[in-house]
Amino acid sequence: MCHLSSEIFTPAIPIGEKILRPVIVYVFLVLFLRIFGKRELAQLNPFDLVVLLCLSNTVQNAIIGPDNSVTGGLTGAFTLMALNYLVVRFLFRHRRLDQVLEGAPTVLIEHGKIQRQALAKELLTESELRAVLHRQGFSHPEEIERCVLEPGGSFSIEARQPPAPERRHRELIERLDRLAGELAALRGSLR
After folding, report:
1. How far apart, in whole angstroms, are the C-alpha atoms of residue 42 and residue 30?
2. 105-136 as b/e, with b when 16 or more CB fall inside 10 Å?
3. Could you tell me if 108 and 122 are in contact, meaning their C-beta atoms sit under 8 angstroms apart?
4. Distance between CA atoms of 176 and 170, rounded to whole angstroms?
5. Per residue in 121-173, pLDDT tens?
6. What is the pLDDT of residues 87-99, one digit of tens each?
7. Of 151, 123, 155, 121, nearest to 141 (Cα)?
8. What is the DSSP secondary-structure string of the chain?
9. 106-159: CATH homologous superfamily?
């Protein structure tokens, strides 16, 4: 029993190495996700999801090393969370550095027109973009005033407002329909 608890709680590698390994992997992943773009964060298709899942499994051994102890795992997890907390706090106070590291948003649709060069830059197909629009309740890119792929991988979509004459026409039709309904109700009550 004593031998079992020793294997569970005693790290197989020094604590310093246990802390350094997640730091190295964290920096590597942040840099490479920045290099390979926002698409990986958006998880647009099954291939991207598979890459992210395999990536986490691939770096697991680099983080834990030959150590399978609970203490070693908790040390690695704590190091990752603490490092992320410190990085986020640091970048919050240094907005310019945050913008350099995260990158700029990419406009994918402007005034209802797909920006094909922007799609190519982000390695997105038109069908993937249309799938995002459909998930948000839009049928056609023409319904979108602006669609932006944010640095964090999320999409900001702004619907197009119909032109003023079209809005007035729609309002008039709605009013006429209401009046027709009221007239029908009045006729029904007079009978």
Report:
1. 15
2. ebebbeeeebbeebbeebebeeebbeebbeee
3. yes
4. 10
5. 888 889 989 988 998 888 889 989 999 998 877 899 998 887 677 778 888 99
6. 889 988 988 887 7
7. 155
8. -HHHHHHHHS-SS-HHHHHHHHHHHHHHHHHHHHHH-THHHHT-SHHHHHHHHHHHHHHHHHHHTT---HHHHHHHHHHHHHHHHHHHHHHHH-HHHHHHHH---EEEEETTEE-HHHHHHTT--HHHHHHHHHHTT-S-GGGEEEEEE-TTS-EEEEEPPPPHHHHHHHHHHHHHHHHHHHHHHHHHHH-
9. bsu07140 like domains (3.30.240.20)
Joined together, the tokens standing for residue 154 give 């999320």
- Total-model pTM: 0.58
Q: How far is CA 13 from the centre of its chain?
A: 36
Q: Where in the chain is the domain with CATH 3.30.240.20?
A: 106-159
Please tell me the distance from the alpha carbon of residue 161 to that of residue 143, in angstroms, as a whole number: 8
Q: Which two tokens stand for residue 38?
A: 């926002």
Q: Which residue carries 């704590």 as its tokens?
A: 78
